[in-house]
Design a protein that fits this description.
alpha+beta, three-stranded antiparallel sheet, two-stranded antiparallel ribbon, globular
């Protein structure tokens, strides 16, 4: 049974300002989980060229995934959720998936939810679409 759906659009250039500005380190710690930071290489400066553009697009898609989840949950960003506990990860196949931790994982489990994620980026924008489903009762 469908519990909720959410989508979000993130401008890559807007996120780039947050990732390169004076408060970038604090922003990264508050928003991205350990798995995301490692996968996106966020503990190192952005290289020039295509590699940086791909990392920025992926970071923007991950940010949009967090917002899409919060919309599907129907709560917005408030307790018990923390952005860094909502991670967009890639499966071995390359398909995106959610990984939850902390109070967010507890909430997902308590509501018996399965989260599905789709991501895309093109033309300076990143898009995420989330569905939350519960088993039929």
């Amino acid at each position: 049974m469908l519990y909720g759906i959410g989508c979000d659009l993130c401008a890559i250039a807007h996120l780039e300002k947050s990732l390169t500005g004076p408060h970038a380190a604090a922003f990264v710690r508050r928003v991205y989980g350990e798995t995301e930071r490692a996968a996106l290489g966020m503990d190192a400066p952005l290289p020039a060229g295509r590699s940086a553009a791909h990392r920025l697009a992926s970071a923007a898609a991950n940010f949009a995934a967090k917002e899409a989840f919060l919309k599907a949950a129907g709560t917005g960003l408030r307790e018990p959720f923390s952005l860094c506990e909502i991670e967009a990860v890639r499966q071995e196949s390359g398909a995106p998936a959610y990984r939850f931790s902390g109070k967010t994982a507890d909430w997902v489990q308590a509501h018996r939810l399965t989260a599905r994620l789709s991501l895309s980026h093109e033309g300076g924008m990143a898009l995420a679409f989330c569905t939350l489903e519960q088993p039929e009762t």
